[in-house]
Amino acid sequence: MKQLHHIKLFLVFLIIFVQLFTPIAQVTPIAQATDTIVDDAPPVDENKPYIPVTADNLNDMTAEAAILIDARTGRILYEKNPDKKLMPASTTKMMTCILGLENSNDDDIVNVDNRAVGVDGSAIYLNEGDQIKMSELLQATMLASGNDGATAVGYYVGQGSMENFVQMMNDKAKSIGAENTHFNNPHGLTDPNHYTTARDLAKIAAYGYKNPKFR
Question: Structure pTM?
Answer without folding.
Answer: 0.75
